[in-house]
Write a structure and sequence with these properties.
Helices cover 2% and strands 40% of the residues. The protein has 815 residues and is mainly β. It is globular. The two termini are 37 Å apart.
């Protein structure tokens, strides 16, 4: 096989920057001996799988009835691992064309049959073509959980006044101090608090003095307010109205004051972006009905409260916690601290790397609400009331006390419980891959479940206790340590299923556990007692078929990349056909895609959701994607495009680019049309981080497309740099018909793929997760020590080189 050199000399090449003149070709020293890359290397971090799923009829009358199918890439079975959903009948299998990370070796297939019976099948990924036949044995039933429907009463968020007329309108950048009414003053418009207003369309970029010493005042923002500095609210509140945006570096509030209304109130449609951290103390309240994004930390203490009814994200990608293989880089390194009798009430979606709950703080997660975190930590008299879904992709940890009241579902990669009191309510599920307990008590109502894949060694004083007249279920599918001297107990109407149980006193022997079972508790190898299925417990304990339980009559057929709620990343160099500094941050896009199909497995819609993470260049790059197997004439409509700059892309009435045969869908013409920034964006750690909004482009087809023709293999995202014809694509992807081929002449490019250099290097990569990109001018080969090894091996060695593992990253060189 012909081989070509990989330029490890990126260590020594002096390259001015990402903005050097495009015609300046650096003089390249000889590469190091042995640094060779297969000439056919495609630089991909993903692989394609075609899965055909066949189902079995439950009876003679159900051969045409739908079986609902969901495919996950993790046993956590949460939205962050859902990659496809659809349906099959015994006469018509489901075929799904999937794009997954190269390192994925197992899929988890969840099926609900026409009687509402459900099960999960683990499927090894041994080839790109998988044929899976689902059988009916050991089926489970799906019903609704009363706890899920009625187990919680919403905690109403406090409100703020909305004036019909404002006292002061701010429509310029002149100096201003927010003050309330002085003694004897009042509003001529009848407002309780002196109101200031930034109108729609106005962008305020100068600081505002919030050092109010008079009565309370309120700033209402309908336009945009940007303050690149610390803001401390003193007797002042900020209300972000529908359509308003506030960008602040750090935000806090003064103490020694009783707040009459929330210090921060975000309406639905409003956005608050904090580039570093925010703090709530002294009993203040934050109400979010819009989108609250914070890069580093939200600190809630001293009796303060947060009410979230929409979206909170704290996602710092500079993650130095690199000691665990199960780390989830989609969640970054941001943290929420709740302490000193503070409270969090969530009825929306919260995505945060770490949540620390301490010193009598309380978290209430309402029905249908979701909290997703890598690490949950709880201690010291704290309480979690979970009526929705809580996912800890790395660890749910408790230490030194605390109470968990689980009404619905907790999912964790690992549960570490020390001095925990957990109350598992009827219909609820606690599902953990690994479990460790030390002085932990789980009080189980009838119909509750605790499932684990493995109990860790050296447990002590673990108690599963039930006083209910009906049974609950504990199940361990892996090995289990000796409990004879662990002071542990299983007491009351609990069936403990140990799937590796054997007779005798050897490994997993019954004699190691029997003395711990009292008051009617059962130790079995296979489950014998039925646990009614609920929406919360995913029917993972139902072993008796039910009747009359309907499935969705109109199921969604959707394939996701990288998952339903996960993020992938495109990272580009923009100097093609000349090499740059290979920091891969000239354009960094976080994205996720949903391919929606009809019941015939034909795609009728694509949704491309994205956020600009970084722009490490002064060149202008527009972004578009070509659907390599779709004609432009088959595009019915496109929504969500941002093309304010007018070039490099223009579009026809249907949203496809003008003058092309294959469908080219412009996403945006310039990052400046989306984000207000100067110079480079988010590539220098010493500068303020700017949070980019999330946008969505939706493409609808006239004639649905076969799913096999619309995968990540044919989703061809590219840059157009400074001029329409200068395109930058990933390796193996073709250019569009508007590509200027003359730009590639005489540039030392691979004759079979002009988006690879003759030495093998590329100008862009795509990742199946949120990629922690290098800082400005730090080459990818320095930031990621195993990048070169991966490339030299043609993708065989270290296919997870970009992961957050020990030794995989030089954190000083990661943004």
């Amino acid at each position: 096989m012909k081989k070509i050199f990989l330029l490890l000399t990126l260590f020594t090449i002096t390259i001015s920057s990402c903005i050097k003149a495009p015609d300046s070709q650096p003089v390249v020293p000889d590469p190091e001996i042995g640094t060779i890359v297969p000439s056919t290397f495609d630089w991909k971090t993903t692989k394609e799988i075609k899965v055909t799923i066949s189902v079995t009829a439950v009876d003679a009358q159900s051969k045409e009835k739908l079986h609902i199918i969901k495919i996950y890439n993790s046993p956590l079975l949460n939205s962050g691992s859902l990659i496809s959903s659809g349906a099959a009948t015994p006469n018509k299998p489901l075929t799904a064309s999937l794009s997954v990370a190269s390192i994925i070796d197992k899929l988890y297939i969840y099926e609900i049959n026409p009687n509402g019976i459900a099960k999960v099948t683990e499927q090894e990924v041994l080839s790109p073509l998988l044929n899976v036949k689902l059988q009916n044995e050991h089926n489970l039933m799906l019903t609704r959980s009363n706890a899920f429907i009625t187990g919680n009463v919403m905690n109403p968020a406090p409100t703020v006044p909305f004036p019909a007329t404002y006292d002061v309108t701010i429509n310029n950048n002149s100096s201003i101090t927010l003050t309330g009414f002085n003694s004897g003053e009042s509003s001529s418009h009848g407002n309780t608090y002196k109101s200031y207003y930034i109108p729609q369309g106005f962008r305020r970029t100068e600081e505002i003095n919030f050092g109010n010493w008079l009565a309370h005042s309120v700033l209402y923002v309908k336009g945009t307010l940007t303050i690149d500095d610390n803001v401390q609210l003193n007797k002042s509140s900020i209300v972000i109205l529908d359509g308003g945006t506030v960008n602040i570096e750090k935000l806090s509030n003064g103490g020694g004051y009783t707040w009459p209304i929330p210090s921060i109130y975000i309406q639905n449609g409003g956005k608050l972006n904090i580039s570093e951290e925010m703090q709530a103390n002294s009993g203040t309240t934050i109400v979010n009905k819009g989108v609250l994004s914070c890069k580093e930390k939200i600190d809630v203490n001293s009796g303060s409260s947060v009410y979230n009814e929409n979206i909170i994200r704290v996602l710092d990608d500079d993650d130095d916690d690199d000691d665990d293989d199960d780390d989830d880089d989609n969640l970054g390194n941001g943290i929420m601290l709740l302490s000193n009798s503070s409270a969090l009430y969530n009825s929306g979606s919260i995505t945060i790397s770490k949540i620390n709950v301490s010193n009598n703080a309380t978290v209430t997660n309402h029905v249908t609400a979701v909290i997703t975190t890598k690490n949950w930590y709880q201690t010291n008299g704290t309480t979690l009331n979970n009526h929705g879904e809580l996912v800890a992709t790395k660890e749910f940890k408790n230490s030194g006390g605390g109470t968990v009241n689980n009404f619905c579902r907790i999912t964790a990669n690992k549960t570490s419980s020390q001095r925990l009191t957990a109350n598992l309510k009827t219909g609820s599920l606690w599902h953990s891959q690994k479990f460790y307990g030390n002085d932990a008590t789980f009080n189980m109502d009838g119909g509750s479940m605790f499932l684990m894949a493995r109990m860790e060694s050296n447990p002590y004083k673990i108690s599963f206790i039930s006083t209910s007249p009906t049974f609950s279920l504990v199940k361990n599918s892996g090995n289990m340590p000796d409990l004879r001297w662990a002071a542990s107990q299983v007491k009351g109407n609990i069936e403990f299923v140990h799937e590796k149980l054997v007779e005798g006193s050897g490994k997993n022997g019954r004699d190691l556990y029997s003395s711990s079972f009292t008051n009617g508790a059962l130790l079995t190898k296979e489950q014998t007692i039925n646990i009614p299925g609920t929406t919360c417990n995913q029917s993972l304990g139902q072993i008796e078929p039910g009747t009359g339980v309907p499935t969705d009559p109109d199921p969604e057929f959707i394939t996701y990349f990288p998952s339903q709620t996960g993020w992938g990343t495109y990272a580009f160099e923009d100097l093609w056909p000349v090499k740059g500094d290979y920091d891969l941050n000239d354009m960094v896009l976080k994205f996720r895609i949903a391919f929606t199909s009809n019941s015939s497995n034909k795609v009728n819609k694509i949704s491309f959701e994205y956020s600009i993470s970084a722009v490490g260049a002064e060149k202008n790059s527009g972004v578009a994607f070509q659907l390599d197997n779709v004609l432009a004439s088959n595009i019915q409509s496109v929504t969500g495009q941002i093309l304010g700059s007018g070039s490099p892309f223009t579009v026809d009435a249907n949203g496809a680019e003008t003058g092309v045969n294959l469908a080219v869908i412009p996403v945006f013409n310039s990052a400046h049309d989306i984000i207000d920034y100067s110079g480079f964006l988010n590539t220098d750690k010493t500068q303020s981080h700017i949070i980019s909004p999330t946008n969505k482009v939706t493409v609808t087809f006239n004639t649905p497309i076969d799913q096999s023709l619309l995968t990540m293999e044919s989703f061809n995202l590219f840059l157009s740099v400074d001029e329409r014809g200068r395109e930058v694509h990933l390796p193996t992807y073709p250019s569009t018909s508007k590509f200027n081929t003359s730009l590639a002449l005489g540039r030392g490019l691979n004759p079979n793929d002009v988006f690879k250099h003759n030495d093998g290097m590329m100008w862009g990569l795509m990742f199946p997760e949120s990629f922690a990109y290098p800082i400005e001018r730090a080459s990818i080969i320095k930031a990621y020590p195993y990048f070169a090894t991966w490339a030299i091996s043609g993708g065989t060695n270290y296919p997870d080189w970009y992961s957050n593992k020990e030794g995989y990253r030089d954190q000083e060189l990661i943004y």
